UniProtKB/TrEMBL annotation:
Highest taxon in the source lineage: Bacteria
One Pfam match: Transcrip_reg
GO biological process terms, semicolon-separated: regulation of DNA-templated transcription
Keywords, sorted A to Z: Cytoplasm, DNA-binding, Transcription, Transcription regulation
Places the protein is found: Cytoplasm
Signal peptide start-end: none
Cross-referenced InterPro entries: Integrase-like_N (IPR017856), TACO1_YebC-like_2nd/3rd_dom (IPR048300), TACO1_YebC_N (IPR049083), Transcrip_reg_TACO1-like (IPR002876), Transcrip_reg_TACO1-like_dom3 (IPR026564), YebC-like (IPR029072)
Protein family: Belongs to the TACO1 family.
Chaperone found in the keyword field: no
TACO1/YebC-like second and third domain ranges (all copies): 68-223
HAMAP family named in the record: Transcrip_reg_TACO1
Keyword Cytoplasm (UniProt): yes
The protein, known as: Probable transcriptional regulatory protein SXIM_03760
């Protein structure tokens, strides 16, 4: 089970690298999106040979690259939770079918384009492991670069910025010698639905089913689960 999940994660990280290399070329220094995709893959222990080949495939230096398209699907999960599903696929029909089946089998429903996405903002999100860092260290490093807020997630800090400031903020962390786990353009909800234990279990089941599809790259949803309820779900 763990191996299967790990394999799927590797495949998604590799796909990110291919797409970034196709869009902006194979040079990491000149292609910040590719740089971030490669860093994230390395942090998740994707072998370097797999990363190098993905860069070459994407940039057209090696055969076998697919023409992936980004498609966003919108829908509602149980308890009216808004769900944005970002797909990266070379087969639109398969992606649409996978998403629809996962949604309908797990208490969700598809929605028209634009009917859910307005509940989210496109943001840059950088995850910084706490290690021995104080929140003030992180704040000092990123505020001048355009960070909007730093949130304490327990094990790590979440640095939020405008998506267009992501590279500047990530670079500011590096200049300050602060390590980070990932730097991604993400969709953050403007309002959240509070869920009880039953609601939390249902939405996690739906997200798992969606992420099980090879075409689904990211799932964003506007729910919030209190720590005590989360502990029960995890148990």
């Amino acid at each position: 089970m763990i191996d299967a999940k790990r394999g799927k994660l590797f495949a998604k990280l590799i796909k990110n690298i291919e797409v970034a290399a196709r869009t902006g070329g194979a040079d990491l220094d000149g292609n910040p999106t590719l740089y971030d995709a490669v860093q994230k893959a390395k942090k998740n222990s994707v072998p370097n040979t797999n990363i190098d080949r993905a860069v070459k495939r994407g940039a057209g230096l090696e055969a076998g690259g697919a023409d992936y398209q980004t498609i966003m699907y919108e829908g509602y999960g149980p308890n009216g939770v808004a769900v944005l599903i970002e797909c990266l696929t070379d087969n639109r029909n398969r992606a649409a079918s996978d998403v629809r089946v996962a949604m309908t089998r797990n208490g969700g429903s598809m929605a028209d384009p634009g009917s859910v996405s307005y509940l989210f903002n496109r943001k840059g999100v950088i995850i910084v492991p706490k290690a021995d860092r104080a929140e003030d260290d992180v704040l000092d490093a990123v505020l001048e670069a355009g960070a909007e807020e730093v949130n304490d997630l327990g094990e790590s800090f979440e640095v939020v910025s405008e998506a267009t400031d992501l590279v500047a903020v990530r670079t500011a962390l590096q200049d300050a010698g602060i390590d980070y786990d990932s730097a991604d353009a993400s969709f953050l909800p403007t309002m959240q639905v509070e869920l009880d234990e039953d609601g939390a279990r249902k939405i996690f089941k739906l997200i798992d089913a969606l992420e099980d599809s090879d075409d689904v790259q990211n799932v964003f949803a506007n729910f919030d689960v209190a720590d005590d309820i989360m502990a029960k779900v995890d148990a």
